[in-house]
Amino acid sequence: MIRGLCAGICLLVLGAFAADDAMAQDSVKVGLIMPLTGQLGAVGKQLVAGARLYVEQHGTAVAGRNLELIVKDDGGSAENSKRIAQELLVNDKASFIGAGLTPSALSIAPIATQAKAPEVVMISGTSIVTERSPYIVRTSFTLAQSSVILADWAAKNGSRKVVSLVSDWAPGIDAENFFKDRFVRGGGEIIESIRVPLANPDFAPFLQRARDARPDTLFVFVPAGQAGTFAKQYIERGLHTAGIKLIGPGDLTDDDALGGMDDGMIGTVTALNYSASHPSAMNEAYVAAFKRANGFRPGFISVGGYDGMHLIYSALKKTNGSTDGDALVAAMKGMAWESPRGPISIDPETRDIVQNIYIRRVEKKNGELYNTEFATFEAVKDPGQTAKP
C-alpha cells in the first residue's frame, strides 16, 4: 500500500511538472530592454507605456500561444543591455528582444544573431543598426529620414547659413551628417558644427557659441529625454528673440516634454514621423487611451513600442505561433499596417521602417503647445540605406 501510495504521488508530481512544461511551451516571452532610470529614463518609460498599451488592447492570446511581456531596465548602459539579453534568451527562454537606445541595440545584435532571435529595435534612430544582424527589424525611425527631409525644407524656405548643434553620439552624428550633406547640396552653408557631450550636458556655452557665429538658422539634435533642458537654456540665453530660426529632428520638441516648455518655443520647425496632434481617428483614439493609462501625453517614442508589439503579434500569427527566428523575420519583411503615426511598412530588403515624415511647427492650441503638421512626405525609406550602391 505504501509503495502504491508513493507511486501515485510520484505520478501526480510528474504530471504537474509535465503540465508546467506544457504551459511554458505555450508561452511566448518578449523581453523589453529599456532605459527606465538614469538620464534618458523618460524615453524608456514612453516606450514601455506604448508596448503595454498594445498588449492591454489586444490581449495576451496570440496564435494559440500566451504572450508574456518581460520588462528590464538597462539604465542606458550597453553593457547592462548585453548581460540582460543573454539572461532573457538563456534563462527566461525569451523568443523576442525589444531593443532601445543605439548603444544597447548594437550590443545585443551579436547575441540575437547567435540565438537566431528577432531583435525588434523600438527606439534607436541610427542607420547602421539594422546592418549589424540579419535578425534585427526596426519599428522606430532613423535620424536620416527626418534630417534629409528637413534639409530640403530649410534650403527651400530661406535658410542659407546654418550652425549645427548636436549631441556627441551616433544618433547626433547621423543627424548632423545627413542634414549637412543634403543642405550643402541644396546651396546652403554649414558655418559651424558644434557637438555637445551626451552625459550631463550644459547647453549654455554651446548656445552662446552658436549665437556668436551669427547664423540665420540653428539646426539642433538632442535626445528626446534632454529636450526640456535644452528648451529652458535656449530661452534663458535669449536665442528665441535673436532672429535665428530653430529647426531639428522632432526629438527637439518631443511631445513628452513639449507641454512643459515655454511659449518661446512657438514657431520651432521640426521633422518627424509622429505628433500627438496627428490628424487621424486612430491617433485620436490612441492619444486618449494612452493618457487614460499613463496620465501623460504620448510622444513619438511610444509608437515605436506600440508598433513593435503589433509587428510581433502579426509575425506570430503568420507563423501560426512558431517561434523559429528565421520564420519570424521572414514574416516581418514587407509587413504593412496603419499606425497612429500613419501608414508604415517594413522594407523587405533592409528590414527597416518605411513611413511618412511630417514637417511640424510648434503652435499653441487650447492653452497647450503642440507640434502641428503642415507638410507630409510619404513612404520615406532610410536614406542611410538607399544611398548605398
Topology:
Layout: H1 2-26, E1 27-34, H2 41-58, E2 61-62, E3 65-73, H3 78-90, E4 96-99, H4 102-115, E5 119-121, E6 136-138, H5 143-156, E7 161-167, H6 170-185, E8 189-196, H7 204-212, E9 217-221, H8 227-236, E10 245-249, H9 255-258, E11 269-272, H10 281-294, H11 300-318, H12 325-332, E12 336-339, E13 342-346, E14 353-365, E15 368-380, H13 383-386
Parallel strand pairs: 1-3, 1-4, 4-5, 5-6, 7-8, 7-9, 9-10, 10-11
Antiparallel strand pairs: 2-3, 11-14, 12-13, 13-14, 14-15
Quick rundown:
It is built from 13 helices and 15 strands. The protein has 389 residues and is α/β, with parallel strands linked by helices.
Kindly describe this structure.
The chain is of the alpha/beta class. 43% of the residues lie in helices and 24% in strands. It has helices at 2-26, 41-58, 78-90, 102-115, 143-156, 170-185, 204-212, 227-236, 255-258, 281-294, 300-318, 325-332, 383-386; strands at residues 27-34, 61-62, 65-73, 96-99, 119-121, 136-138, 161-167, 189-196, 217-221, 245-249, 269-272, 336-339, 342-346, 353-365, 368-380. Strands 7, 8, 9, 10, 11, 12, 13, 14 and 15 form a nine-stranded mixed β-sheet that branches. The longest helix is centred in the first third of the chain and has 25 residues, at 2-26. The radius of gyration is 23 Å and the shape is globular.
